Structures are given as structure tokens and as C-alpha cells.
Amino acid sequence: MNAAPINEAEIDWPDEEERRTIARRLFTYSSHALGAAVQVDRIMVNHPNFKEALASCDRVFQLSRELTTQQGVIVSGPTGSGKTALIRYFRNSLPRSNLFELGHGALAVRLSKKPTVGQLVGGMLRQIRYPFPQVNEKTLAVKRNVLIDALRQKGTRLIFIDEGHHLMQQSRWRSHSEDGNSVTDCVRELMDEVPLGIVISASEELNDLEGVDQHLASRISAKHSLQAFEPGPVWLAFVRAFAKQSKAFDLSLIAEKDEALRLQKATAGNLRAFKRLVTEGVLVAADGGARGVELGHMHAAFDRVYGKDAGLGNPYVG
Ligand SMILES: Nc1ncnc2c1ncn2[C@@H]1O[C@H](COP(=O)(O)OP(=O)(O)O)[C@@H](O)[C@H]1O
Ligand SMILES: [Mg+2]
Fold this sequence. Notes:
By secondary structure, the protein is α/β, with parallel strands linked by helices. The chain folds into two domains: 21-43 and 246-306, Helicase, Ruva Protein, domain 3 (Orthogonal Bundle); 48-225, 3-Layer(aba) Sandwich (Rossmann fold), CATH 3.40.50.300. It has 14 helices and five strands. Helix 2 (31-41) packs antiparallel against helix 13 and helix 13 packs across helix 14. The chain starts with 15 loop residues before the first helix and ends in a 12-residue tail after the last helix.
């Protein structure tokens, strides 16, 4: 069987680190345990900052076709704070509508480290299943018009641009026309011509969108940030809501106040670290035939996630 080509623009494609974790887990655990962990891995909590950012995306989605001045949003936050998860959540929770084709109301692209306008246009054409998505400098103008027409027809209202901090490294294509040769030029054109709303999610490296493209920056109306959680009531509420959603597997241990705080310490309140540790705990527990996570499972899970010799000190000792 031929391996499918990796589509860099597909935001659900796991990165290198995630791939290694998945491979290790497939090798280590029974299918029963993996099944239990998948359920827990899917749990999403609508915590306050997440909710606010979602509401902002919703607003842009609702208005993008109605307003003449286009609206954009930036969601910024460190790695593991939930930026990509927000995009996935939004797209999965869009109701069916006859205003847009199923699955095409909001598209999402992930920028590569040195994004070009060809990758952006090609990535989006691929998502709408256009049969000839390859773009080069000669075909750019034509393909961009094809894309604009297609997005109009499908009723697309919003585009998410993930890993938006890579815009700092965007390169410009040589071309006859003055404009429209960089990723940000193209994003602006799509916003104005389709028209479309835009949500850029980025790490804090994108501190100077003005410097990259002031015309695009002027179309950004709202900024939201997702952060690691401090040890406090918001974290506690998050962990409890998370544990409560786990129906098949008992996570009541982590909902206890002291345990929730210990988890904050073990993960520095980072959601990626949190999910990795908790799902590992579920894997260990389910593999051992348990129906709920206990302290011993969390101890083993921490060692497996971070390695015994990481020198971090296992917080689940004693
Ligand atoms: N609101 C949330 N509820 C539950 N899990 C979340 C939430 N936000 C993020 N996560 C989880 O945290 C992990 C990291 O999130 P991700 O969106 O990949 O971070 P980022 O894109 O900011 O680097 C993912 O496993 C994701 O499922
Ligand atoms: Mg991400």
C-alpha cells in the first residue's frame, strides 16, 4: 500500500512528537486500554477563555457574509494551550445549514514553517477537493480565482489559519503583478473578495502582525489569549468538568481538590501535558484491569510520559 502524501495544510495531521507518543502507546498497551484512552482523549471542556474565544469565532462566522468591512480574530497562546483544539471544536460543532455545504462552512489550514502563497492556495483547494490543487508561480493567479469562486459557491464563511506565527517567516513569490504574492496578501484578498472572516491562531511569536502586513493587521478586530492555568478555582473547575465527562472510566480521583492541584503542578497547567498524563494514567489503569484511575497508576503514568531519569521528580511519590 502506498502511504498517503502528507498534506501539510491539514490541521489534524499529528506533529512529530505526537506521532512518537502514538507509536509508543500502540506498542505498549492492549486494545482495550487504548479504547478507554481514546474516549478520555476526546473530552473537551468549555473553560472560560475557550468559551470567549469560541464566541468571537462565532461572531465572525455569523457576520462575515453580511458586513462590508471584514473581521478577523487572533487567538494567541503558547504551545499546548488549546489553539488547534479550538479550531477542531468549532468546526465539529457547526450545525448543518443550507447556507453552506456540509464541512465547508469553516475551513482550516496549518501554515508550514516558511509559508508561501502557493501552499496556502493549494492547501485550501485540496480541502475543497479541487482536482488540480498544485500551484506554481505561473498558475497562481488562475488558481486563486478558482479558489475564490469555489469558496463563494460552497458558502464558506470563515477560514482558520493555524500556526499563524509562521507568517513572520513568509516569503514572497516573484510575479508580474505588484500585489498578491505573499500569504498575507492572499488572506486579505480572500477576506475582501469572497468575502470571508479569518481566525489566526498563533504563539506569542506573532507579536508584530503590523510589521508583517499592516493591511491585514487592520482587519483584525479582536484578540484572545489561551494560557496555561494557574493553580486556582478555574483550574479546579476545569479538572472537575473534565472528570465528570468521563462516563465509561472513573476519573473521580483527579477531581479531588488535592489531586487536581497535584496535576496542575505536574503539568504546569498546560493542557497538552494534562491530557497526555491523564490519558497515560487511563492506559495504565485499564491495562491493569481497573475501572478507575488510582494514585499508583498516575505514578507509573508520570514515569512513562517523562521518563524515569528526566530528573523532574515524580509528584506521585508517597
Ligand atoms: N478546552 C479543552 N478541553 C479539553 N482538552 C483540551 C482543551 N483545549 C485543549 N485541550 C487538549 O490539549 C491538547 C493540546 O491542545 P492543542 O490545541 O493541540 O494546543 P495548541 O494548538 O495550542 O498547541 C490537546 O490534546 C487538546 O485536546
Ligand atoms: Mg496547535
